[in-house]
Write a sequence for this structure.
């Protein structure tokens, strides 16, 4: 549980710490930069809110990290709890939408490439990861990493470190061990 003010401060501090380093060597932010906004017209300084940040790299790779928080307790309490997240890293589809995000529609020809690593909660509401595959790997198949506690900026830092030294795998940097 977190308040909008706390989350906004946390997001801004981490984003500001990483953005210059991430945008080195010609990388470009989608949508003109990270988006962070409360989405309730009635209670503009409380949940629900969402954040979204994506960067395309000159070598065709990209990352995108998104979170949404739903209201917890009374609206005037200002508390939110994360109910969705999606962190992607991999090869971007050659086509982009009107905000610069790589297209992800599976019906595209050719379809978007499978992500090198995706960590998310989707419609199933069960935290899982995908490692170079569409296969859902739940917590029972993962050691060393609590999927539901995945941190967007730890993910971005791992992407940065992996790009600096591709010999370091993204899953190793995050401490993920996939069980057979």
């Amino acid at each position: 549980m977190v308040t909008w003010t706390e989350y906004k401060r946390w997001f801004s501090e981490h984003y500001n710490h990483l953005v210059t380093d991430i945008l080195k060597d010609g990388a470009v932010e989608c949508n003109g930069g990270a988006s962070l906004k409360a989405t309730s017209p009635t209670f503009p300084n409380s949940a629900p809110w969402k954040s979204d940040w994506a960067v395309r790299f000159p070598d065709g790779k990209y990352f995108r990290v998104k979170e949404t928080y739903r209201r917890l307790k009374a609206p005037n309490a200002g508390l939110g709890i994360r109910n969705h997240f999606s962190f992607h890293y991999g090869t971007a589809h050659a086509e982009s939408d009107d905000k610069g995000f790589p297209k992800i529609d599976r019906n595209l020809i050719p379809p978007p490439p499978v992500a090198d690593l995706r960590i998310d909660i989707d419609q199933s509401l069960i935290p899982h990861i995908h490692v170079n595959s569409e296969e859902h790997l739940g917590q029972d198949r993962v050691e060393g990493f609590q999927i539901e506690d995945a941190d967007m900026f730890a993910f971005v830092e791992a992407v940065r470190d992996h790009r600096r030294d591709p010999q370091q795998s993204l899953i190793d940097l995050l401490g993920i061990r996939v069980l057979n």
User: Anything to note?
Assistant: The longest strand covers residues 79-91. The chain has one domain: 2-178.
